[in-house]
Amino acid sequence: MSSDYKKNSLSLLDAVAMGTGVMIGAGILALTGQIAELAGPWFPLAFVAGAVVTAFSAYTYIKMSNAWPSAGGIGMILKKAYGPTTVAAGAALLMAFSMVINESLVARTFATYLMRGLGMEPGGWLVPTIGVGLIVFAYLVNASGNRSVGLLSQIMAVLKVGGIALFGIAALWAGGISFEATGDRETGAAGFIASLALAILAFKGFTTITNSGAEITAPHRNVGRAIVISIAICVVVYLLVAFAVGSSLPLDRIVAAKDYALAEAAEPALGRIGFYLTVALALVATASGVIASIFAVSRMLAMLTDMKMIPHSHFGMPGTIRDHTLVYTVVIAGVLTVFFDLSRIASLGAFFYLVMDILIHWGVWRHLREEIGARGWVLLTAIGLDAIVLGAFTVMKWQSDPTIVLVAVVGMAAVFAFEHGFLKRNPPTAGNHDHGHGKTGEPEKASH
To answer: Mean pLDDT in the chain?
Structure first.
């Protein structure tokens, strides 16, 4: 497996570009309207609160990545915390699936904005068809190698971060910085807290950086730096855009156009040219988001395979395990793109991610906090915040769409049951039991 990963093939700038690429692709374009639907007129502040919760979560990943930078990222953290157990393998698969779900979310968003740009009402068979087309394109880019991904991520990140920030500033200036997104849609504290599940989803792209740890230059230092820089950039961009959308449209129109809120807000604020520029930016942002996410999740699945935590079959395909996991990732993302709408995809991703996140913090708090020098109260605060948000989101979704709650619960139960059966049939060797309890002298030795 080591030959599949090129040390020092991703610079700090590449890592930041990948992180912002995944975050901005999903966060501001796919989720602004959905967050507004739950949070009401307070939706811009939901991004700030989501960033605070994410900051507590990121602490765990940074401390672990500084000690043991790994191409398996999340899988490595879970295996060190729990050993090669059902909990570790199941939670790692939840993370992988939440990343694949994110790809389908962003692919459908790409299709929605493209159709709006062509003057068509998004809907019908064209949305999933275009979304699957983007996923196939992202596969071809990823199959061409790391350098292509890193370079393309950098170019697209600069274009979209600068462009979307410029959209926010221009729309605010044109709208006179008057917040129009008010109305009778008062959702209360429960709705606001529930909306944080989607706001957290808008920031979870920082884990893309964690999953590429072994390939980043000076990883013990740069993984943490890249995570902090990416989250900081996204907070600024999200706030700018949220206030710009709120200054251009009343709340009911933001919610009605929740799948393409930025495009809807651009025309009254910036005219027809502004509308087309915003659509172009959305297409760049979503395309790069899918490319960066597929890059990370295929490597995570390859590392989990290498750690004997998930089964693997090449189905007659040539190439390395990483080549095969790239295909699996693309196929699953394509299926989700066809069968689920944006709102349900986002909800499913939020459920999977929050449960996995809680398990990571708990495992590190129980077994590794002293070894990596982590503050226990920060880890427990991260667990508490995640649990509150997950609880509020579950209640709200149970009231509005109980089907997706049941799908999430059944899906998670199936993942853990599958892993339990796999590990029972394929018990790990004694040498694989590493809970990180001080058995490893040097962090560098533990990264493989």
So the answer is: 79
98, 90 Cβ separation under 8 angstroms:
no
| Tokens coding 171 | 């729309």
User: Is it the case that residue 313 has pLDDT exceeding 80?
Assistant: no
Are 363 and 78 spatial neighbours (Cβ–Cβ below 8 Å)? yes
Domain that holds residue 358: 2-446
Q: Which range among 150-159, 204-213, 295-304, 417-426 has the greatest average pLDDT? A: 417-426
Q: Between 342-367 and 188-203, two packed helices, what is the crossing angle to 10 degrees?
A: 80
Closest CA to 226 of 21, 49, 28: 21
Among residues 263, 288, 281, which one has the least CA distance to residue 116? 263
What single string gives the DSSP state of each residue in 92-140?
HHHHHHHHHHHHHHHHHHHHHHHHHHTT--S-TTHHHHHHHHHHHHHHH
CB 231 within 8 A of CB 203: yes
Euclidean distance between CA atoms 223 and 228, whole angstroms: 9
Which tokens belong to 25?
Answer: 């692709």
pLDDT in tens, 38-77: 888 888 899 999 999 999 999 998 888 888 776 556 777 8
pLDDT tens readout for residues 130-181 = 988 888 888 887 777 655 555 666 677 777 777 777 777 877 777 665 555 5
User: 47: domain CATH number?
Assistant: 1.20.1740.10
